[in-house]
Amino acid sequence: MNTTILRKTALGIAGLAFTGGILAGPATHAHATTDTRPVAVTVQADKPAVDKTKLIPHGVQGDQSRIDLTDEQTANAKAITAATKKTGLDERAAVISIATALQESKLENLGHLGDRNDHDSQGLFQQRPSSGWGTVEQITDPEYATTAFLKGLKQVDGWQDMPLTKAAQTVQVSAYPDHYAQWEQQAADLVAKHWNS
What we know:
Blueprint: H1 2-24, H2 52-55, H3 71-87, H4 91-105, H5 136-139, H6 142-154, H7 164-172, H8 184-194
Helix pairs in contact: 3-4, 3-6, 4-7, 4-8
């Protein structure tokens, strides 16, 4: 009886030593072992989705144009979006702003173009210092130019319910009033991508 107890005790101690060696000691095997330690996983919450019904509430009008954007043009689209948010206006205002800048400058912050210049128009929105939009330095600053455009947009009664091209034209007074409509889909796509970034 005592031999049986001694044998069980010895086997138990050997088993503990073996288990302790595996759990606490370095692996001496050539093959891989599974790591069973808990791993901390960081899960980033998804950004809230943009309500796409706000972006193009009336549907696009006419054929749509699209251009591939450079890093500079993308940065300007982001700047317009950020400035729109900063003014407290919604995604629709950002769509109108970006579509306007796509038509006016292809989202390039244009300086004076010499003989090709439309009077003294400059910047993303081709705003004119002589028409009271601001100084050259101001209208070539994306945040300032966007804020100035949005200030004009807010003065248009019912702009939220207008087709994009009518809202943009009322602010810009362009010689080509229907040309803004062609950029609505690309502008909406840019706002959807960058509104919550």
